[in-house]
Design brief:
Elements (H helix, E strand, L loop, with lengths): L2 H11 L4 H22 L7 H10 L1 H30 L3 H34 L2 H11 L10 H18 L4 H8 L14 H23 L6 H24 L1
Helix pairs in contact: 2-4, 2-9, 3-4, 3-5, 3-6, 4-5, 4-7, 5-6, 5-7, 7-8, 8-9
């Protein structure tokens, strides 16, 4: 076999994120985001209240913001896989929907970093000091402000593309579009819209994720056990390596 033929076969067989990562991301990404939203729903929405809540309930707020951030990261392979399904019939809708959505996911990841730093200011100083720092710097320029509209628009474009391409049902498309109502920005708490948006995301993507995981041969018990063990080992390794850094 020539090098050219071998390279072509590799390109043909390679598919990111693939069935397992993509399917798992479609299920766990929305669930983690909903969990994060639900855990902080009891506290008031604006950043002074979020910082005060962290001072009183640090473990709860840490779990909330980390669950949401983890779900947001998992949405990257989920969006890529959905865009691939849309692209078969509506490639332009897939391209723009995925582009806007991915830029929006990066923006929320940036916000998560600012949230983390603000919470550490509460730990090291006080909620009042952290509130003053955030208030004084809230309007400062950063490049991710450019993508604020993309955060909201991406889900609508993906929903329309999913409907036109029949990648999702009409009800799933409506649920996906509801994500455009999820509040964005630094240290944002939860509102009724936050709950509706993330429930809509779950309704849209969980059935799709189950379908993706079922669409193919079932792995053997040995392969499944090895896969779970390897995933757990990698997560543990990355966790402890990260803590050491």
């Amino acid at each position: 076999m020539s090098d050219t033929t071998q390279e072509q076969n590799l390109k043909k067989n390679y598919d990111f994120p693939g069935r397992w990562l993509g399917g798992a991301a479609l299920i766990f990404g929305p669930l983690l985001m909903l969990t994060g939203v639900a855990l902080r729903y009891r506290f008031h929405f604006f950043f002074p209240d979020q910082l005060a809540a962290f001072q009183d309930y640090p473990a709860l707020l840490t779990a909330s913001y980390n669950a949401f951030a983890a779900g947001n990261v998992l949405m990257l392979p989920a969006v890529i896989l959905l865009a691939k399904r849309i692209a078969g019939r509506r490639p332009h809708w897939a391209f723009w929907g995925a582009t806007f959505s991915v830029f929006g996911l990066f923006t929320r990841t940036f916000h998560a970093g600012v949230d983390h730093l603000a919470f550490q200011l509460v730990r090291q100083q006080s909620a009042d000091a952290a509130t003053q720092v955030i208030a004084d710097s809230y309007s400062a320029f950063h490049i991710f402000k450019t993508f604020n509209l993309a955060v909201m628009l991406g889900w609508i474009v993906l929903a329309i593309g999913s409907y036109l391409s029949r990648a999702l049902t009409i009800y799933q498309c409506i649920g996906l579009a509801l994500m455009s109502s999820l509040p964005l920005g630094v240290l944002k708490g939860s509102t009724a819209l936050s709950v509706v948006a993330t429930i809509g995301l779950c309704a849209a993507l969980l059935p799709f994720g189950v379908k993706v995981l079922r669409d193919g041969p079932k792995p053997s018990a040995t392969a499944l056990s090895c896969g779970i063990a390897l995933s757990a080992a990698l997560i543990g390794f990355f966790y402890f390596f990260g803590q050491a850094g």
